[in-house]
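Ticket 4471: requesting a sanity check on a complex prediction with 4'-deoxy-4'-aminopyridoxal-5'-phosphate. Repro inputs:
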Amino acid sequence: LWAHVQQGPPDPILGLTEAYNKDTFPNKVNLGVGAYRDDEGKPHVLQCVTEAEKRLLDAHLNKEYASIQGPKDFRDASAKLALADADNALAEGRVTTVQSISGTGGLRVAGIFLAQFYNFPNKDRAIYLPTPTWSNHLPIFRACGIEPRTYSYYDKNTCGLDFKGMMQDLDKLENGSVVLLHACAQNPTGVDPTPEQWHEIATLIKQKNHLPVFDMAYQGFASGDYDKDAYAVRHFCEQGMLPFVIQSYSKNMGLYGERVGALNVVTTDPQQASAIESQLKIMIRALYSNPPIHGARIVATVLNDNDLHALLLKETHAMADRITSMRTRLVEELAKAGSKLDWSHIQRQIGMFCFSGLTEQEVQELISTYHIYLTKNGRISMAGVSSGNVEYLAHAMHAVTAH
Ligand code: PMP
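Returned structure tokens:
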């Protein structure tokens, strides 16, 4: 019956973790996984989350279904965290927010909605993604019948932003194109536009009447400041644009496995917001009926309580700080190890990832000789770097790059 079904390729990142788990070398290092680790290399549960869970347990809540769009206290708090008072959109009731199965599910529902309702300027319904981008963006949008295409983003020579190339590409697109932007801490490069560059990007996107779709998987995690990390999203709203904003609570609250996030659609008026919500509900009902309740309850409890919210800000800041300090340490250790190469981009880049500039061959050598696991594009998950392994990592990076 299923003889025609062939073995599919393993996921590039999860395959790496499998190889790491099998490795018996005592000082092995996993820099593939996009999840925060503490300085001992252990997964981290936030204190504000544990406290919220205690309160939820004490409240003896039932396990009834959530509404299709998720609990209102969660949705209101989530939209506020992303948009604050930008352009008064929330106060005017012209934002639709639905809970999503984290960032991935939010992107997928956004894709399905766009495929059905957006008036694409091109026949093959394209979404324009930065090169490179999170690898899952491609299959997510393809599965919605939307064709992933690219615009310039990363400059290999500077390990920074190819701003000129990006602007030229966005300018060349047909008016009204759908453009995906990483709100902050771009994955995989760690390279973000400056606020001034965001202003220029916003002006161009507005002038071209493109539809901005913000993937905001790292709010708070990039700089440690939720408002700063939402700067681009809010600026686009202030300029009168109507972006899609997809949130994830995987990284900033460490709720990876709870699968909690939100899709926000900024519209012109409450009637539009209501019509869009009704259509999103029809789509979600057919996809998974209604969202999981536990993660949404945790997020709502934390965001709606002053003390827990303050604790969240402090804890997110601490995670971002640890990563920043490891960037500094890694650059210092590379110099100490004797590397004469310019590694300053490691410190310039932002968020969980560092696009190291290591070649595929150098990565292969790190894996086979040094038991250091990372994706073949040279992306280092900085969350996997700790005081205990930074020196070893620097030595290995120097050894494979000192030709
Ligand atoms: N977008 C980007 C850019 C990401 O890096 C990730 C996580 N790796 C996601 C979305 C989705 O993650 P999740 O589904 O856990 O929210």
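Notes from triage: The mean pLDDT is 96. Leaving this open until the requester confirms.
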